[in-house]
Design brief:
about 280 residues; alpha/beta; 2 domains; 8 strands; Rossmann fold
């Protein structure tokens, strides 16, 4: 009898040890995720594309933010009086050079554009945060206005993470239009999709809750999202489209991944949208 009691006691201690070990490991995962989450979200040194040669004429400019950070940016001017101006807000990885394959196509469209790099990207000072990126984008709009471009002639273009910024600054404004490429409903939803074992809503600092904000956008909107996206599930782009006010347009190719194919079909969708704004 004593032997059986001792054996059960050892077994219980063993199970308790395993449970406590699991909880300790899980606790450290939570602490690590909370402390280093922005390193997981923002990747300024990641290079998705390389070797692209820029063919569109751009003027390197610096845009100063309210908190005194100079943002490296490229400005392409055709005609601010007769053409709309795109403000391009890029995603969570890479540099301006990683978007050359996109902006090269803009030279064939009747459009001006400004593409900015975020704080902490492209050698810029500062560290990226949700509020910091909002400030960067608002500073870019202010810069465009200082060049004589009125709000109703500006098209806000958000790419991936940049869609969260685009939705934020487009609320209750009179922009000509909004373009969202591979958007998400919220960073909480993305986190839950990638890390279902973590209490993402409690841990996350930068939430970018576009699903809650998109109803506040009155400008015409084009949402582009590949159905084969393995980073941001397609249903998020579709959900944002369903929530958006009219007029709204969509481009949902069957086989595009998160990095959408910048092909003739996509470009035609962008051109048709821009033409509809005139």
């Amino acid at each position: 009898m004593n032997f059986l009691i001792k054996k059960n006691f050892i077994k219980m201690n063993y199970l308790l040890f395993i449970l406590l070990s699991f909880l300790l490991v899980y606790f450290f995962i939570l602490v690590f995720t909370y402390l280093f989450q922005r390193n997981l979200l923002y990747h300024p040194n990641e290079n998705n594309y390389s070797g692209d040669k820029i063919s569109v004429l751009v003027e390197p400019v610096k845009i100063k933010t309210k908190d005194n950070i100079d943002l490296t940016s490229w400005y392409h001017l055709k005609d601010i009086n007769n053409y709309k101006t795109i403000l391009f807000l890029h995603g969570n990885a890479g540099t301006l050079e990683n978007r050359i394959h996109k902006i090269n196509h803009f030279q064939n469209i009747d459009i001006n554009f400004l593409i900015i790099s975020w704080r902490g990207f492209n050698g810029n000072k500062g560290k990226p945060t949700e509020q910091g990126l909002y400030e960067d984008a608002k500073s870019a709009v202010k810069w465009l206005k200082s060049k004589g471009i009125i709000e109703k002639n500006i098209i806000i273009y958000g790419e991936s993470l940049g869609t969260g910024v685009a939705v934020e600054i487009a609320q209750n404004k009179n922009f000509a239009g909004i373009i969202l490429e591979s958007p998400f409903t919220s960073m909480i939803d993305v986190g839950k999709d990638k890390y279902p074992f973590l209490p993402v809503s409690l841990l996350l600092k930068d939430k970018y809750e576009s699903g809650k904000k998109i109803k506040n956008i009155e400008s015409p909107i084009l949402i582009m999202h590949g159905k084969a996206d393995h980073i941001v599930p397609f249903y998020m782009g579709k959900k944002l489209y369903e929530l958006a006010n009219t007029p709204k347009y969509s481009y949902f190719p069957e086989y595009d991944d998160h990095m959408m194919e910048y092909n003739k079909t996509l470009l035609n969708s962008i051109e048709r949208f821009i033409t509809s704004l005139n």
